[in-house]
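Sorry to interrupt, but I need a hand with the structure work. Could you add the entry underneath, on a fresh line?
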Amino acid sequence: MWSLRRALVVAFLVVVTIPLALFWLWPHTRALQNEVQQVQEKHLLLARNIGSSLDRYTRDVASTFDYMADGMLAERKIEAPGPLLMALRFRHICLVDLGTGVILTSIAGLSSPISGVIAPDKLQALKTLAATRNGLPGGVVSASDGAPVVPIVRAVGNRLVLAMVATDYVSELARSVSFGKGGHAIITDHTGRLLAHPLPAWEQERLDVSASPVVQRILRGETGVEIFNSPELNDDMIAGFTIVPRTGWGVMVPQPMSELTAAARRINTSAMSIISMGIILAALIALRFSLLVVNPLTDVMVGAARMARNERDVQINLPGRFVPREFTELAAVFNEMSLNISEARQQEAEARARAESANTQKTEFVRYITHELRSPASSILGFARILSAETLKPGVSPGCVESVRHIHDAATHLLSLINDLLDLGKIEAGQYTLNEVPLGIDELVDRCTTMLRETARARGITLTATMDEPPPELMADERALYQVLLNLVSNAIRYGHSGGSVDIHTGVREDGRIEIIVADDGPGIAPDDIERVMKPFERIERGAAGTTQGTGLGLPIVKLLVELHGGRFRLTSALGTGTVAYIELPACRLLRSASTAGDIAKAA
């Protein structure tokens, strides 16, 4: 466990370190963000400028091609086209018969005029290109000498005008963009093949880069900025990109992200030295501050420990000139609290003594009254039984018979209440002693059902009892356990539906615990009321008429008697589904005869 001094030092260091770390992190991340933002703007601007240049170039190429094609198709003489074609990087332009593939006319640009017959497969490719991009530059291809060129075709009737444009201007335009250590420009055709790239081998091979995420966005006609990973450079790249609308060519200006983080690392190095000095200074201040806080608190803690040892009128004094005002106020409040606690303890002791005396007197009074009432109640019950026998003689009026029955029932109820009060008082006072003897649970159940069968029959309730074989035998207080069964079964009969049933089941679980279940199909108890019925004198309305019966002591006595045996008592019920009472007695109360022990061993 940490001491307060150490916690204060650590807390102070954390509080100081966080701003210092933010001081380091802010310029570091901010610088990186600024670099990224500037790169985004710069690279996108570069890409758009290159795209504008390419757009102007391709417009000039297209206009020149249209002019030359119109002249050649009209068989009009074109004056000195060579310089114009060379300036726009035309290798040559020719007129082809689509039926035979014969080159009818050829005008030279960067290369010599061509003649002869175009092979059928190439002629078919030119027809396809004319159908898809009539008058527009096609995808980059290789010329007969291996140089990359861009074909432009136009088909009119049975003739086709074909021009081959070198990619020199595109390559020069891309190579004119170079910055940092790895910043460059890349240009692709409308299919994703390279027109210009810093690596001449890639450009010569017309490498297909259409799988790149940036090129994919270009092919979809998008313009923007993308950060992606370059497997070739083994680095993340940030690139501004755009598209040349007329041709569908793409322009991309990428730069390695490692160049952008280099500046941030330099800021990081200088910031770390400032943080280190700040942490050292903070540690020195924290140590001094912790002494100002911990020493007064130690004095207060010593005073509290003395109070915990029941010392009276504990007072503390905080010496020193630099004690914070809050601690002097704390000491004053503590001293006042100590005096108040001493006074309160004295008052509490006196009040507890009075309460214990009153509780003892109450308990003795209840025991005395109930004991004194028990004799006359028994006498009334005895005389009521004598009168009941007399009412069986001829000539006794029905009103007299009814009155005697009421006297008998009232006396029985009164005696039951007195007995319950006596038992409850003994249990709560800890004076109820269990008289434990070996007994058979089947015998107790049989006595209970015999006792209450006539009551159940009067209400039309079927009383059944089932038990595991062999019937469990246990060590328990016979009278207490019999009273538990009698209370539960009589409750089930009293509150059950007329014509219903009450089932009693006893058995032994696999773990050796003894289980007694009493279930009825009466109106049930609301889940919110189950806890209430476990308290003395708590009664709820049950039954179709909503009446309350009994004294409210039966279930609390059952619970206390079961717990005296080390067991557990619980109820499960819901309105309209009946009530099930569960009694679980510990396995140590089971008498492990040879047969029972064998059954338990098998179950285990």
